[in-house]
């Protein structure tokens, strides 16, 4: 581990100034960053601890909820309002990591977690995300965990989280304080980026930006399903996950907000799927058409080819679950 | 002073059935358990020595080639850096189990990705780790590294069995299967990483390390260091899991020793989790061919089991895939053979139950397919094929409870011996199915000594270099001594893991209990004999219980007999002719119920029953825990565990516990263990056999068979991950 300085931010503006310095990184729960520092994947000169900032509460706001950036995953998943009105979010969080990690992991940190690509976490391997221009070890290597949607020839890593997939389906918004004192809001659906030619850039945050909260829109009616497919039943990243909010009236789908994890460099949302489903009657044929849209441009890299049929089946399973259709 | 027991004939006296204390076999809690769960058991890396320096291994980022030079100056000005050790004595690999000589040295010659090439020593761990990452070295990478066992040159292991005409038997069979299986590499994944602290006082090298077999390790270390064995002391009183990965002296031990001798200060070397995965033993991946031929009654007439495994050049170890296949089932026409491919992956060596762990699941899955073809219930098929004598050697079996385990296990599990058509049971979106497999693991013993002292105050002290790697050695040795000397186990102090004590074979191959346990037994018999002679009593007439000696109608407190003196005996157990005269093995049976998701192919084990015959049970609680642990490994090897190697440069990619998937608590369901009553006098004079590995020898096959019974997916590749299950799932 490279030696580093440690500073504790007392106020938000102060935090913004500190993290704007070159070589500075913000730390909250540290569940991902500390591991990466030990592996020398991240080598910040300064850690700016956000832990003292007053961003650790869940409050009602605009008919929805405002989850402070420092609220832990455990508290979010246990919150009665979240469990009652946004069960999708509670389930997604509980599907991720372990209890010990969730006790430390925060809302803002979880959004910013890095890929678990084996080549990214091994500094003796090429990785365009860690070391731009060095190449991608995964494309010709072990790509079992990797993306099938929105990849580039620079990077096929996945965004590994679960929480953000649920937030993406819920159409939540990330609230960001800029280093210049400004505040802006970015939909979760637009927060993460595809790798393109700049896989080192994973989200829209700029130097000095600090996530302050995630805003959940007012609750909606319907079934909320989070289905995560994995080899073992806990402490494993998704081979594929589906977040679905589906409502029906008189046997017709009236709402269908879906997002997918484990398939891309970001939580995947394709508005065409909702458009296809809304107004239609649930059927396996319909769900298959939804999968056709989802997987229209899917590309496997050998090791992860399985994700293409798996995503199709996971989508059908989630929609059966949500609509009550039995296969 | 030393009492020798040479095991030339079965010891069927069953002495421990006639002693009076009544603690042998009892489910007593391990005496060191509280220390462990409260963090007060001191593990190798945890000793606080003044002036201790920290060493971090530098590893090769290429799989084959030569390190030409190491630029010590590239880090020498970094904070805290003391020295870069590039000594010729550094070891490139860990020693194989019972190697008894230095493992490969000359670290400049690189044969696998991640091989240690140097040690950076600094004042603090963080400084050493940072410097290790920055150390510059010049190397030449060879272009002819080979990572694919199928593409590499291979050689046939000695000891292959060729008997009769298997091809003909296959042609003549009423039912037969000819199947190919694969298993992926496994890691031991012990919780405690490999770690050492070495101290050099100018004369003697003392090393606290995490090792399983000190008697061999001391020789390996002395040989590597060029020291006389008498100038080396090894201590491993607590070992946080080994599973074979700590059988031989590992690279940290030698590196810490070299540094301590060179720098004159204690040096600690702790491997990172990634280094443990990348530089310590792997279990070889295997490809296997199973040929089974049966007559109309389901009796095997032909039995073929061939395997391709791999290892580095010049490593003697070859995963003994067919070890229990040699004798588990009959069939007069036999082919059993192992080929070893030479490839550039880290050393292949012993990982819990080498051989059976991967050979038995394949065999047991093939038996399931044969049962289906023959139209015979799979439990019944196994019962029909238990041979009279060793099928190729003709030797008699010692005690064998395979049939009892199959029957008792089936009864407890509620095995349905009716027709076994897949997809007969469903709950929601889950297909439910059951499967069975036999368990077998060869029984091993090794020469062992232990010192037992009956103290003047009536308590006892047991001393041996034997280790407790979480298995329960402290518990059972105390129980054997307490039972034999007539006292509660709390009155027996057991000291382990120190080479200054009498030596035993250590922990490995499930042989610790039967070997060192027998040495303690032999010492105690000699002590009892001396008490009898002090009393003028016949040995067989003497009873020791709760500190009181009884003989010929008289009683007297043992402390009174001792009259202020202690009695010390060294028990010496030496394996003898019984090893050759009998085929000794532990047996059992697994029954598993699984649920397979119709959408995703995810498989979850819902319940499991294991019935095991392990000879005399020394402690029902620790024996049961061993079996449970083995069954958890069955779940891992059936469903999730797999070492993934990069096809381009051969490095191990999933080198931590987040990505190498051992089962988590939620994957482990209700598990039931039946210990079938048994005494095996050919196995040991305490009639006990090995138990540490048996619990994982075949159970993955029961899970595979249950997957088929649940959903109709017949897989031949372990682990059976959701993608593989889906690919094999019949169309809806």
Automatic annotation (TrEMBL), chain A:
The FAD-binding PCMH-type domain, residue ranges: 1-221
Pfam families in the record: CO_deh_flav_C, FAD_binding_5
Name of the protein described by the UniProt record: Xanthine dehydrogenase family protein subunit M
SUPFAM superfamilies per the UniProt record, alphabetical: CO dehydrogenase flavoprotein C-terminal domain-like (SSF55447), FAD-binding/transporter-associated domain-like (SSF56176)
Key words of the record: FAD, Flavoprotein
Organism for this UniProt entry: Allopontixanthobacter confluentis
GO molecular function terms noted in the UniProt entry: FAD binding; oxidoreductase activity
PANTHER family tied to this protein: ALDEHYDE OXIDOREDUCTASE FAD-BINDING SUBUNIT PAOB, XANTHINE DEHYDROGENASE SUBUNIT C-RELATED
From TrEMBL, chain B:
Gene Ontology MF term list: iron ion binding; oxidoreductase activity
Residue ranges occupied by any Aldehyde oxidase/xanthine dehydrogenase a/b hammerhead domain in the UniProt entry: 38-143
Organism domain of life: Bacteria
Family matches, as InterPro entries: Ald_Oxase/Xan_DH_a/b (IPR000674), Ald_Oxase/Xan_DH_a/b_sf (IPR036856), Ald_Oxase/xanthine_DH-like (IPR016208), AldOxase/xan_DH_MoCoBD1 (IPR008274), AldOxase/xan_DH_MoCoBD2 (IPR046867), AldOxase/xan_DH_Mopterin-bd_sf (IPR037165)
SMART domains hit by this protein: Ald_Xan_dh_C
Family matches, as Pfam families: Ald_Xan_dh_C, MoCoBD_1, MoCoBD_2
Listed name of the protein: Molybdopterin-dependent oxidoreductase
Organism listed in the record: Allopontixanthobacter confluentis
Lineage: Bacteria, Pseudomonadati, Pseudomonadota, Alphaproteobacteria, Sphingomonadales
């Amino acid at each position: 581990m490279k030696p580093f300085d440690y500073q504790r931010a007392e106020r938000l503006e102060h935090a913004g100034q500190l993290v704007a310095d070159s070589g500075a990184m913000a730390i909250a729960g540290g569940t991902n960053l500390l591991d990466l520092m030990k592996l020398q994947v991240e080598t910040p000169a300064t850690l700016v601890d956000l832990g003292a900032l007053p961003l650790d509460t869940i409050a009602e706001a605009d008919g929805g909820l405002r989850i402070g950036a420092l609220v832990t995953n455990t508290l979010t998943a246990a919150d009665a309002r979240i469990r009652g009105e946004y069960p999708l979010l509670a389930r997604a969080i509980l599907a991720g990591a372990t209890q010990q990690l969730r006790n430390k992991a925060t809302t803002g940190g979880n959004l910013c977690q890095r890929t678990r690509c084996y080549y990214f976490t091994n500094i003796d391997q090429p990785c365009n995300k860690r070391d731009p221009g060095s190449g991608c070890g995964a494309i010709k290597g072990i790509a079992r965990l990797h993306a099938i949607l929105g990849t580039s020839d620079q990077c096929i890593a996945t965004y590994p989280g679960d929480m953000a997939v649920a937030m993406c389906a819920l159409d939540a918004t990330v609230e960001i304080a800029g280093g210049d004192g400004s505040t802006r809001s970015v939909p979760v659906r637009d927060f993460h980026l595809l790798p393109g030619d700049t896989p080192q850039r994973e989200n829209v945050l700029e130097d000095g930006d600090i996530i302050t909260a995630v805003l959940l829109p007012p609750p909606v009616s319907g079934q909320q399903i989070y289905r995560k497919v994995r080899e073992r039943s806990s402490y494993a990243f998704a081979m594929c996950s589906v977040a679905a909010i589906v409502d029906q009236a008189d046997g017709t789908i009236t709402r269908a907000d879906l997002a997918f994890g484990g398939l891309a460099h970001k939580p995947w949302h394709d508005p065409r799927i909702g458009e296809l489903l809304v107004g239609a009657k649930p059927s396996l044929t319909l769900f298959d058409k939804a999968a056709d849209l989802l997987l229209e441009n899917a590309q496997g890299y050998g090791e992860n080819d399985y994700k293409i049929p798996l995503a199709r089946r996971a989508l059908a399973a989630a929609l059966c679950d949500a609509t009550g259709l039995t296969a | 002073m030393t009492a020798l027991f040479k095991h030339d004939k079965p010891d069927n006296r069953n002495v421990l059935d006639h002693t009076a204390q009544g603690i042998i076999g009892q489910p007593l809690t391990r005496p060191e358990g509280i220390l462990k769960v409260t963090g007060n058991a001191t593990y190798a890396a945890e000793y606080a020595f003044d002036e201790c320096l920290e060493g971090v291994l530098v590893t090769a980022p290429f799989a084959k080639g030569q390190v030409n030079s190491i630029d010590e100056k590239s880090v020498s000005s970094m904070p805290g850096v003391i020295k870069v050790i590039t000594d010729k004595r550094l070891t490139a690999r860990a020693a194989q189990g019972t190697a008894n000589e230095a493992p490969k040295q000359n670290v400049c010659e690189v044969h696998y990705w991640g091989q240690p090439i140097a040690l950076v020593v600094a004042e603090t761990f963080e400084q050493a780790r940072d410097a290790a990452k920055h150390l510059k070295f010049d190397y030449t990478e060879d272009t002819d590294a080979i990572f694919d066992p199928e593409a590499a040159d291979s050689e046939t292991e000695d000891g292959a069995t060729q008997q009769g005409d298997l091809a003909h038997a296959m042609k003549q069979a009423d039912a037969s299967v000819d199947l190919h299986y694969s298993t992926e590499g496994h890691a031991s994944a012990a919780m405690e990483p490999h770690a050492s602290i070495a101290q050099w006082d100018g004369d003697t090298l003392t090393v606290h390390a995490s090792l399983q077999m000190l008697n061999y390790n001391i020789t390996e270390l002395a040989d590597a260091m060029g020291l006389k064995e008498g100038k080396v002391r090894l201590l491993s009183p607590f070992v946080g899991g080994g599973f074979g990965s700590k059988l031989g002296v590992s690279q940290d031990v030698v590196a810490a020793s070299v540094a301590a001798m060179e720098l004159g200060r204690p040096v600690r070397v702790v491997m990172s989790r990634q280094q443990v995965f990348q530089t310590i033993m792997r279990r070889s991946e295997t490809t296997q061919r199973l040929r089974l031929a049966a007559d109309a009654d389901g009796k095997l007439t032909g039995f073929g089991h061939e395997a391709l495994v791999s290892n580095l050049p010049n490593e003697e170890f070859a995963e003994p895939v067919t070890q229990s296949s040699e004798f588990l089932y009959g069939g007069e026409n036999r082919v059993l053979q192992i080929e070893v491919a030479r490839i550039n992956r880290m050393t292949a060596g012993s990982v819990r139950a080498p051989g059976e762990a991967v050979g038995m699941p394949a065999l047991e899955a093939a038996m399931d397919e044969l049962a289906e073809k023959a139209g015979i219930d799979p439990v019944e098929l196994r019962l029909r094929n238990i041979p009279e004598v060793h099928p190729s050697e003709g030797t008699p079996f010692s005690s064998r409870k395979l049939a009892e385990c199959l029957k008792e296990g089936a009864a407890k599990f509620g095995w349905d011996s009716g027709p076994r058509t897949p997809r007969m049971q469903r709950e929601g979106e889950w297909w439910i199915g059951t499967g069975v497999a036999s368990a077998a693991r060869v029984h091993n013993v090794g020469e062992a000594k232990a010192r037992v002292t009956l103290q003047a105050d009536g308590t006892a002290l047991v001393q041996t270099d034997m280790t407790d790697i979480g298995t329960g050695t402290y518990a059972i040795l105390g129980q054997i001594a307490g039972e034999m000397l007539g006292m509660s186990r709390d009155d027996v102090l057991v000291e382990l893991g120190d080479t200054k004590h009498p030596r035993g074979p250590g922990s490995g191959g499930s042989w610790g209990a039967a070997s060192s346990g027998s040495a303690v037994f032999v010492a105690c018999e000699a002590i009892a004999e001396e008490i009898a002679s002090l009393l003028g009593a016949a040995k067989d007439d003497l009873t020791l219980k709760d500190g009181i000696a009884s003989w010929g109608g008289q009683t007297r407190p043992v402390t009174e007999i001792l009259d202020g003196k202690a009695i010390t005996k060294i028990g010496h157990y030496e394996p003898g002719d019984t090893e050759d005269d009998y085929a000794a093995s532990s047996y059992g049976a697994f029954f598993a119920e699984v649920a397979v998701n119709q959408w995703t192919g995810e498989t979850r084990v819902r319940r499991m029953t294991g019935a095991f015959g392990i000879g005399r049970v020394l402690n029902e609680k620790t024996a049961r825990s061993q079996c449970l642990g083995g069954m958890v490994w069955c779940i891992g090897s059936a469903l999730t565990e797999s070492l993934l190697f990069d096809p381009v440069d051969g490095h191990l990619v999933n080198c931590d516990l987040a990505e190498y998937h051992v089962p988590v608590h939620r994957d482990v369901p209700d598990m039931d263990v039946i210990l079938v009553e048994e005494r095996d006098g050919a196995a040991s004079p305490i009639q006990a056999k090995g138990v540490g590995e048996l619990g994982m020898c075949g159970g993955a096959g029961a899970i595979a068979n249950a997957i088929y019974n649940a959903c109709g997916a017949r897989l031949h590749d372990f682990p059976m991950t959701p993608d593989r299950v889906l690919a094999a799932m019949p169309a809806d």
